[in-house]
Design brief:
Length: 470
């Protein structure tokens, strides 16, 4: 038998007495009861039985609560519930959940469980329900857990983000513990809901477990969600996407006399800048000309790339993620023209160290020559452009047409050199740009259609051309 079961006999036996150390004991043995089944010295104290019965009837007939229990049920519980609900509604801000729907759901679920338990606890104590004490303890446990979570978060949060001081929350935790102990030791509680009558249904036990487990899972899930978003946000591709979204807000933007930046996108492999060139249409150019623009555009923008890398941190992110870069051009009719593209390896290279490769140089000259012959300076005809065998000099093969021999005789080397020196600043064709970018010499080799033996060359070094590498 348990001590509680033995005490049911001792409480109505005249041999009982109170010992402040041992509790209710037997006068005959001086010890707490230790019998099994039925005590051989047991006698009924009819007067005490009547007193207990009368007290029980008074409790059962009375619906009012008294003392500290009344304060707990009629004041503390409803005030706590109402203030919690008002605080939730008044201070609700989706931004407080740092983008986590699980954190928001945690607060809502926790609040609903708490309000339900408070309401039912008040009802259960008034109606003397056998699970009143259980639900009161549930309320205190939920309140304790919520304050504990707040305390943990507050320790790591900025002081400006904390609604209540840590000391205030800590004091509330102490009061929670105090009320929980009160429910265990209070005689008022024991008289109102005797221990032997207390019981909790399986459904209520499940409800209590859910009230703890479900919010905890949501809270943990919220942390995982935030962590996952933080990891995702720090991925290079996501940072690039965010940069694109931010910069689209300022587009379109005029970036040159005939150039407009219209968009900025990321295709998973390269960051793509989109431009529109005024007064250009794809139908006005051959495929070779557009390819020439693409190749020459890349060779001539290395210095600009260097400047952009120093100025814009997005290029560091491109290198980190192993992504490339494209400048995509369209005509003012919206149709695609050509693209200047850089691989991730090219972006990682130092732009100032760039020199056009022999293959690219030859390809550009070949594309340029595909449009020759063409009229050139002074009524002459440009027949071909080629690179010398030592790869140091770009040769322009120019045919002078329609002159007589007497006039031709006056076109000496010095004359043609002076003439071309004045003309150089206005020559923007592909071979000249490549020569300047790569510090190569340029030789203008003149022949005439009226003489098989006349030929003159005007040669300029890279320094004379004005090397444009910085």
């Amino acid at each position: 038998m348990t001590r509680e079961e033995r005490l049911q006999f001792c409480k109505i036996c005249p041999h009982r007495t109170m010992d402040w150390e041992k509790g209710l004991i037997c006068k005959l043995t001086g010890q707490p009861a230790d019998f099994e089944g039925e005590c051989p010295n047991f006698q009924k104290d009819e007067k005490e039985i009547e007193t207990i019965a009368e007290k029980k009837r008074e409790i059962e007939e009375s619906s009012s609560l008294k003392g500290f229990l009344a304060f707990f049920v009629y004041f503390l519980l409803p005030v706590g519930a109402v203030s919690t609900f008002i605080r939730f509604v008044r201070e609700f801000d989706e931004a407080n959940y740092v983008g986590s729907k699980l954190f928001l759901l945690f607060d809502i679920v926790f609040l609903l469980f708490y309000l339900y338990f408070v309401g039912y606890t008040i009802y259960a104590f008034v109606k003397r329900k056998p699970d009143a004490v259980f639900f009161a303890k549930c309320v205190l446990v939920l309140s304790f857990v919520s304050k504990l979570i707040y305390l943990v978060v507050a320790i790591f949060a900025d002081e400006s983000d904390i609604a209540y001081p840590v000391s205030t929350v800590a004091i509330s935790l102490v009061w929670n513990v105090a009320f929980y102990i009160y429910l265990y030791v209070s005689e008022d509680v024991k008289e109102r809901i005797p221990k032997e009558t207390r019981k909790v249904s399986g459904l209520n036990k499940i409800l209590f477990i859910l009230s703890i487990v479900l919010p905890v899972l949501l809270f943990i899930g919220g942390f995982i969600e935030i962590y996952s978003k933080a990891v995702s946000a720090n991925k290079p591709e996501n940072i690039i996407e965010e940069v694109c979204q931010q910069r689209r807000a300022s587009l379109p933007e005029r970036v040159g006399d005939d150039l407009t930046a219209t968009d900025m996108t990321f295709d998973g492999k390269s960051l793509v800048y989109h431009f529109v060139i005024d007064s250009m249409r794809a139908e006005d150019y051959t495929a070779d000309q557009l390819e020439l623009m693409s190749l020459l555009g890349k060779e001539s923008t290395w210095t600009e790339l260097k400047y952009l890398k120093e100025k814009d941190p997005v290029y560091d992110i491109l290198e980190e993620g192993g992504y490339g870069l494209e400048w995509r051009y369209s005509g003012d009719d919206g149709k695609y023209l050509y693209t200047v593209a850089y691989s991730s390896d090219e972006l990682a290279a130092q732009p100032e160290a760039h020199t056009t490769s022999p293959q690219t140089f030859s390809k550009i000259l070949s594309l340029f020559n595909s449009a020759l012959p063409m009229e050139y300076v002074g009524g002459s005809e440009l027949k071909k452009v080629f690179l010398s065998n030592d790869n140091q000099t770009v040769h322009y093969d120019i045919l002078i047409k329609g002159l007589d021999r007497h006039t031709l005789a006056g076109m000496t080397e010095s004359y043609l050199t002076d003439y071309m020196k004045e003309t150089l600043p206005y020559i923007y064709d592909a071979p000249m740009q490549l020569a300047r970018l790569n510090s190569k010499n340029v030789s203008f080799d003149f022949t005439a259609d009226c003489s098989d033996i006349w030929s003159v060359s005007a040669v300029f070094t890279g320094d004379e051309l004005g090397v444009a590498k910085e």
